[in-house]
Write a structure and sequence with these properties.
By secondary structure, this protein is an alpha/beta fold. Helices cover about 30% and strands about 25% of the residues. Helix 3 (about 30-40) packs across helix 4 (about 40-50) and helix 14 crosses helix 15.
Length: about 650
Amino acid sequence: MSYVWRPDADYLESSNVARLMRTLGVDSADALRARSVEDIGAFWGAVVDDLDIAFHRPFTAVVDQSRGAKWTDWFVGGGLNAADACLGVWAERTPDAVAVVHEAEDGTVTRLTYAELADRVARVRGGLRARGIGKGDAVAIYLPMTPEAVVATYAVASLGAMLVPLFSGFAAPAIASRVQDAAARAVITADGTVRRRKQALMLPALRAALAQCPSVETVVVVENLGESVALAESEVAWADLLAGAPDPAVEPTDAGDVLLLAYTSGTTGKPKGAVHTHAGFVTKTASEVAYGFEMAPGRTFCWITDMGWIMGPLSIFGTHGTGGTLLLYEGSPDVPDTGRLWDLVERHRVSMLGVSPTLIRTLRAAGELPAADLSSVRVLGSTGEPWDPESYEWLARDVFGSRVPVINFSGGTEVGGSFLCPYPVEEIRSCSLGGPALGMDVDVVDDAARSVRGEIGELVCRQPWPSMTRGIWNDDAEGSRYHDAYWSTFDGLWRHGDFALVDDQGDWFILGRSDDVMNVAGKRVAPAEIESVVAVDADVAESAVVGIPDATKGEAVWVFYVPRDGAADPATVAGRVRGLVADGVGKPFAPSQVVRVERLPKTRSAKILRRAIRAAVLDADPGDLSGAENPQAVDEIRELVKDLR
C-alpha cells in the first residue's frame, strides 16, 4: 500500500474540522481526537455550538451517566425536533437554496429549494395528522431514493412520530417482520421504482405483508412509475396529501424522544430495532457530515444508498443539518454504462461523493479512466466493507489525481454513524480508516479487555456517544437483548462485533465481523486480509473468503471469486490465487478450495454476506436474508459446491 493522502493548505486552514481544531485549541487530528474524549460532555457541547444546532429549549446538561454508560441520557432537559433543526432553520435562513436534487435512471431531474421542501413537508404533515398520526406512532417508509422519501422523513419526524425506514427491495416477509415489531400505524410507499431499465414493483409486496400487520391503518401511495394506481380502501394517494393545506405546527419533541427505529439483520433470529433519538441522531450525523465530509451551504452531498440502510437517514439529516444540498440517484449507477456515476458528478457539481469498494471495483474493471469533469469533488466517502489497495489507489490516485481524501469510515446502524473515521486535515494511508471518530472512545482489546496494538482484537467503545442506540425496540424491561448484543462480553465496554487492527504506524483497519474471522491451525485470520491479496490477481473482479470446518486445521480457507471478462480457466486462476495467499499471508492459509462463481450474495449496501456463503457450503440455514439484494446467489453457490463438501 504505497498511496498516502497529504492535505494541502486549503484543507489545513479552511476545512470545517480545522475550524473546530482552532476553537478547541489543538493543532492536529490526533490531538483533537484525544480532546474529544477527555470530557465527552464538553466536546459534544462544543459541536452543538460550532454547528449551531437548533434546540427550541436549551438543555441543562450535555450528558448524564447516572444510570450507567448503557443508559446514558444526552442533552438533558433540552428540546429539539429533527425536522426543525435540519429543515426549518434553513428554510428560514436560505429559503431559495436547493435542498434536494433527484435524478432518475432515465435522466429526469427534480429540484426542491428549502422553502419548497418545507411546504411539501407541511402539507404531508397535515394529511398524516388528519388521519390520526401523532407523537409516538410508528410510520414505516418503504420508498426508493426519491424526493418523497425526504418529504416523508421530515413530515413523520415533525409530528413526533417514529420513522421506520425499510429497504426498497424488501420482499413481503421482511417488510412484515419490521412493521409488526414496530406496530406501525401507517406506511408510506411507492407503486415501484426503476432499476436497470426495469420496473421493480413495490406496492404488491407491501400489500402482501400487510395481511399480517393489523396495526397498519393507513397506507400512502406515491405514483412513482407515472401510471395511475387503483387504491384499496385503506390507501390514499400521496398527491391527495400534497393537495391539502399546509400544517404549520411542528411537535416540540424532547431531545431524548424517539426519532428513528433502524432495523439491523442478525445472523439468526428476528431483526433488531435500534432506537435513535432526535437530538442524538441529528448531532452525530451533522458532525459526521461536517467534519468528515466537508459539507456546508452551497455544497452537494451524494451517496449511492437506500432509505433502508443507516446511510439513507444519515444522508438526509446530516446534509440538511449542515445546510447543504442532497443529491438522490434512483437507479443503477452503471446504467447505461460505467460512466453514469462520473456524469452524475459533473452534471450536479457534486462536492462529496460516497461510493462502495464493490462499485469502484466494477468501474475499474471497465478499463478506462472517466472523461467527466470531476473538479467539484472535495471529499470521497466510503463505508460498509474493506477496500483492496488496487481499487482504492485507482480511485484516489488515478481518477482523482491525489487531490481529494478518501474518508473511509466505519460504524453501524446501532452506532448512528461512525466509530472510526479519517479527517481531511491528516495524512491518510491507502485503505485506512484513520483513527477513532471524534467523540468516540474506541479501542482494540484482547480477550481480557486489554488494549492491543499490532495484532487483531475486538473493537470496543469505552464511553457513550449521542447517537448510541437507546436500546432495542420491544426488548424486555431489563434490556436483555440490548445487553446481550453489545454489553455482555466485556464489563462496561460496548463490543461492536468487529475484529480490528491498529498497525505499527497508528492506522486503524476493520478486518470483518468477529464471527467471520477464521481460526486456521490455531491462528486467527480475517477474511479481508486474504481477500486483499486475492484482489491482486488480474483475473479476479472480487472475492469472498470463508472458513470451513476441517479435521486437520480446525478451519480451512475457501475462496469464492467472480472472474473478470476474458479470465483464464478456473484451474489456472486457482493455482495463482493459492500462490498469492501463500506468499502474501502465509502457507498455512493457502486456500483448500478456490471456487469460480458468477456473483456473490450481497446486501443492497454492497456488503458481502460471508455467513450466507459459509452456510451454503455447509448446506445449512443462512439465517436472515431479508437485506440481501440477490439471495438467489446463495442457492447458486450451494448447488455449485455440493460435490466439494
